[in-house]
Amino acid sequence: MTFSLTQGGLYAITDSRCLSGTSLEQEVEDALQGGCTLIQYRDKSSDHAKRSQQAQALLKLCHSVGACLLINDDWRLAADIGAHGVHLGQQDEQLEIARRELGNQAIIGITCHDQLSLAVEAQQQGADYVAFGAFYPSSSKPNARPAPLSLLNKAQQSLQLPVVAIGGITLQRAPELWQQGADWLAVINDIFARQNIAEHCRSYLACRQPLRDQR
Ligand SMILES: Cc1ncc(COP(=O)(O)OP(=O)(O)O)c(N)n1
Ligand SMILES: Cc1ncsc1CCOP(=O)(O)O
Ligand SMILES: [Mg+2]
């Protein structure tokens, strides 16, 4: 597999708990087997040793299939372990600092909530993708600000970057998000809280295929 950010697809974000009852590594291995090409390691705990060890294990898995591992919030951890990049929120450290420290090859994604203007700014500052949401209520981040579906289409029209949708995404909701113009669907619960992770991921990607064939 050759990873391509512009190709879009399914973006699996880990939870700090193991949701499926197996192990974090097994969960990610299953998601990769199901066709996820972009993984985000997201653990808000302050235990650096654990985070570093887990992120390195996930990076090894991603390397083995040519997928991409981003680290949430923490560009230092990304730099330490040689991850592919980082996802930064509006409250996190600045894009310019992360870019300077990680270099031009790194992938840097930016949270833009429900605001196109934040995405335009992120694009000007050299982001590689922008993420909007939450499109639906999310049990993983209950206080996430809601974003309207119509934003995806507007973002596609006005940006030259891949657009990521996040927040409460399920397989049933996936078709409308792909249709509205999301390039990537970023999902925690509806991937990792499943017993059949690989199969479920394949179903997400299968419902995108007819749209891709049309374009
Ligand atoms: C792909 C993607 N989009 C949005 C977020 C949220 O980032 P942020 O607003 O910094 O919130 P936390 O994830 O840090 O709680 C994300 N992580 N990934
Ligand atoms: C990190 C984040 N940012 C906005 S919603 C969200 C959580 C997404 O998780 P889920 O797919 O379980 O709703
Ligand atoms: Mg953050």
From TrEMBL:
Q: Where is the Thiamine phosphate synthase/TenI domain?
A: 10-191
Record pathway:
Cofactor biosynthesis; thiamine diphosphate biosynthesis; thiamine phosphate from 4-amino-2-methyl-5-diphosphomethylpyrimidine and 4-methyl-5-(2-phosphoethyl)-thiazole: step 1/1
Where along the chain is 4-amino-2-methyl-5-(diphosphooxymethyl)pyrimidine bound? Answer: 40-44, 72, 111, 141
Pfam families linked: TMP-TENI
Give, as one word, the top-level EC class: transferase
For the keyword Magnesium, the answer is: yes
Q: Which HAMAP family match?
A: TMP_synthase
Q: Give the family this protein belongs to, as stated in its UniProt record.
A: Belongs to the thiamine-phosphate synthase family.
Name of protein: Thiamine-phosphate synthase
Highest classification ranks of the organism = Bacteria, Pseudomonadati, Pseudomonadota, Gammaproteobacteria, Oceanospirillales
